[in-house]
Structure formats: C-alpha cells, structure tokens
Amino acid sequence: MNNKTGALSGIKVVDLSRVLGGPYCTQALADHGAEVIKLEPLGGDETRGWGPPFDGDLAAYFKGVNRNKLSLAVDLSHAQGKDVLIRLLQEADVLVENFKPGTLERWGLGYDTLKTRFPGLIHCSITGFGADGPLGGLPGYDAVVQAMAGLMSVNGSQSSGPTRVGLPVVDLVTGLNALTGVLLALAERSRSGQGQHVDISLYDCGMSLLHPHVPNYLASGKLPKLTGNAHPNICPYDSYASGSVPVFLAIGNDGQFRKLCDFIGAGSLPDDERFANNAQRLRHSDALKALLEQKLAEHDGLLLAEQLMAIGVPCGAIADVQTVVDHPHTQHRQMIWRQGDYQGIGSPIKLSRTPPAFRQAPPQLGEHTLAVLANHGFDAEAIASLQACGVIPAQ
User: Fold this and answer.
1) pLDDT tens sequence across 147-175
2) Is residue 45 annotated as part of the catalytic site, yes or no?
C-alpha cells in the first residue's frame, strides 16, 4: 500500500477502535497517507455484520469508514496478544482506542504506563463521558448522547416532539474532534518531542454542537423551543412548500429578504412593518411563512432554488440521497470514490500538493495479520506460536 504521497506519510497509527467515531477518525488519517493498522478481536469489529445492505460479504456500514487500513486479528486479552500490541507500539506515532475507561489499565496498558514506555506516543482515547466525573466511565452511544447532551431537545417540531438527528452526528463529530486532537498533538510533538493524551468524549462533542442554543440560553435564561426546520434567531430560515419540491430558505439579512420578495412577486412584504427587519419577522414568522408559501406555490422549487442562488439569495431544494450522489457537483468535487468493487464517500479534506487518496479497499478480517507481524519482527516460529495459542487466527 503506497502511502508516500499523503500529508501524513511516515506516520504510523495503531487503531484499536471499532464501530464509528474512532474508525471515522482513523480513516481520515489513512486517506492522507498514514499507515493505519486496525487491530480487531478474533470476531472482528461488530459493524462488519451491521447489514443488510452488504457489499460482498462486508456490511456497507463497515466499508464506509475502514478503507486504506490494514487488518490484524488478535486476542488482546491474552498475554501474547498484549505482546503483539507492545511490539506494534514500539514503531507507532499514534494509538487510537475507544475502550471503556479502565480496560487498558486492567491489562497493564493504561496511558500512565504507555507514556513512560513510549514517551513520543500520542494516545487518543474516545469514550462516552470521560474517565471520571459524575458520568465518568459510563458507556457511550450516539443516540443516547443525543438525548443526554441536549441535541434531541432542540430537534423536532411541536407535533413530533424531541427527535434524534437522522444520522449519527455525535459519533461523526467525535471522530472529527479526535482527528483534530491527534493532528494538534502531532504538531506540538514536532516542537517538544513529547507525546500526550488526547481525551475525547461523546458527551463533550455532543454538547459542543449546541450553538446557538447554549449561548442563547446563557444570555436570556430561556429554554429553546422545538421549531422544526426554523431557526431560533433568523427569519425566514425554514423549509417552505413550493409548486414542486420543498425548498429551504436561509435569509440572513434585509437585503436578501427584499431580493427574495421581489423575485417571487411579493415585493410589498419588506414594506410591511411586521416584516421590516429580522426581529419583526421572527415575531410574525407564522404569518410570513403563509404569505411566502402562497407565492412559492407558483414556482417550481428546483428551478427557483437555482435562480435565487444565482442572485445571492440562499436557497436549496431539499434533495434525497440519490439526488445528492448523482449530482454533477458531487462528481466534480470527487465526493464519491469508486475503485474496482469499492465505492464510498470521498474525503472532504482537500490539500493542493498532498491530496487524499484511495489506496486500499476496506480489509477482510485479519487480512494482513501475517504481513504486519512479519514487518514488525515476528519470525515464522513466533507466528506459529501465536496461532497455536489462539492469539491470532490459524491461516
């Protein structure tokens, strides 16, 4: 696997994470040239079986966040399995894991131990709530944290009640924050020569998304209300029915509002005192929405969205997944990667000299076990011993 062209070429990552947050982080590292060795239990990352749909014999869920990685299947609960991990860490720059707090400590491999043995190692721990505090040590799950960290309380409408965001937003932003933390630590290590611990929790990451709701609450003391697609601070900023597909208007100032009204044949609305400025429009948002939808019903939403964007009025037709995948701009931005039998979401992080690249399809469980071990100094006799003890699969 050629990793010599990426921005992280020469960086070696030992990936003990599973499911989503950690693998999302390590796939981004791998896309940009890091050598990522994914250590899996003998039964594999459980998302390998999270289907249908399956793409071949792997769940599409697993394939979505595990490209460009090497897979080594090993039983870390076995003493010889821990020895394998230690051998890999001798050459590693980064360790990413999402074990429940205390797991590595029970194995004698906690951060305090590892930092003494490997002072340059960056150890990124992804947990539900951190290791201490009132909720410390509890397991974390995306939807549960969406509930506990306040996201559900601001998502939904009065009729629906609080609802989960329709994608694992907490897991994904946790992966992005883990990526950021690892890169920050690598940058600092280039000056100090020292590694450090990167502490990322789903709870912190979930709460960090509560903008502008927490600032609004801290300033006013008022709890946010469920507003569906509407914005608590801006109007019109909502989804609206049109003559075809619904559209989303994101009007940020009075000039955009006047342009919108003039274009759709509602030029008198900006002169109505109820809609003269954003604060007034917020107070009379229901009336404004009804009046706008009367005019929007005369327009094809797809065409209107293009026309409004062309004149500087933020508007988008609400698209389904197929529409997004097939959109010419998706292709132009290379946001779907296809290579052989592989297809998945491309990298959104684009560097001019060292762009991200597809190097390898998501691995079969343990596909690279023998090669990785051999590359880290295990001879045939040592590998046979590991197989005989059941630490690695017999192959």
Assistant:
1) 999 999 999 999 999 999 999 999 999 99
2) no
